Amino acid sequence: EFNNRALAIFNEQGAPKETAQVYNNLAVIQEFCGNWEEADTYNQESIRLVKQSGDQRKLASFYISAGLLNLKRGSLDEAQEYFSKSYALAEAIGNTLGMANASLNIGIVHTHNHYFERALESFSESLSMFENIDARSKVCQNHIALAELHIKMGNLEEARHASEAGMEIALEAPYSFDEARLLGLMGEIKMLEGIDATGDLARSVEILSSLGRKYELATAMTQLGQAHLKAGDKKKGEECLEQSKDLFDTLVCACK
User: pTM of the prediction?
Assistant: First the structure.
């Protein structure tokens, strides 16, 4: 409702940059709810308007938003295109943080495409840039991406090192989304090694629940359910899987 009121005001004032930001906010909300088409419509409008405003830094940021939406939808070619546009634009205006963000996301696309060596190159570039500008939270996210990559590659020791490096930073601000993600990764590594992962995964679920991250919570509940089943606790496993299903069902209607 707040965004809709702001949209009406900025449209009336003829303020394209501010209107573009509101459309970007609406896109994030619809993406969070899983309404991909609505989110894409808002993203395209935000990009169109910010181009009119001439704000190149914000345009590079909006390209990242559009790329992330396509990444979630599984449209990897489109995601790669948006991230590459963002990188080129950030490079042209000398925005190191923008370049690093784009490189990180390009690496994530490469991971999904199983271009593992390319992913490592992208993550190495982004990590170096994030560290050079002391972007601690981004360094943490880079370690998360590296851990996910190494898990896919079967390099569990490297995945553990990346997770631990990320957790060292995440714990500077406890009970964060990054901490929950890292606990999930550490749990996944333990499951692959045949070790009980329910402790890490339960903690991840607890944090995600407190943060209201329903989509990620549903995914984490699935993972926790699988861990309980693997540990031989059928009752808890089935309870978690049922809760996960209920959460996913509620998300379908969340923004209607």
Answer: 0.88
